[in-house]
């Protein structure tokens, strides 16, 4: 068997009780779409790096640019995506805008992903 082969049933036979159970618990299409979109946000290593910085401290765009060796423009672009996905929040203090994780769920999602790849 080749590495890319997936084992399949030898005959086509559905299991109605299992299908009913799965269908009862299946979220609406809109929810599945939103979930897929959320995971796309995690699909960029720059955004993951930003989130890791925010695990440690609330920082401004200037700090992020310095820590990650990137331009403020590039950081701002990624923060916009993270903010639209409700993964980060911001607050203004004088002339500075500080960013932090939106809530504990963000840390949990990243931690579980890390745990999965470290297995």
Describe the structure in your own words:
The protein has helices spanning 16-25, 29-41, 45-56, 61-68, 72-84, 104-118, and strands at residues 59-60, 88-93, 96-101. The protein is mainly alpha-helical. Strands 1-3-2 form a three-stranded antiparallel sheet. Helix 4 packs across helix 5. The radius of gyration is 20 Å and the shape is elongated.
The termini sit apart by 25 Å
β-strand number: 3
Strand order of the largest sheet: 1-3-2
Give the overall shape: elongated
The CATH architecture of the domain at 45-118 would be Orthogonal Bundle
What is the number of helices? 6
Content-based structural category: mainly alpha
Q: Tell me the name of the CATH homologous superfamily of the domain at 45-118.
A: Winged helix-like DNA-binding domain superfamily/Winged helix DNA-binding domain
How confident overall, as mean pLDDT? 93
Elements, N to C (H/E): HHHEHHEEH
> What integer value in Å does the Rg equal?
20 Å
The portion of residues forming beta strands comes to 5-15%
Helix content: 55-70%
- Low-confidence stretches at least 5 residues in length (pLDDT < 50)? none
Would you tell me which CATH topology of the domain at 45-118 applies? Arc Repressor Mutant, subunit A
User: Major sheet: size, sense and barrel closure?
Assistant: 3 strands, antiparallel
* CATH structural class of the domain at 45-118: Mainly Alpha
Entry keywords:
119 residues, mainly alpha, single chain, three-stranded antiparallel β-sheet, Arc Repressor Mutant, subunit A, 3 strands, 12% strand, elongated
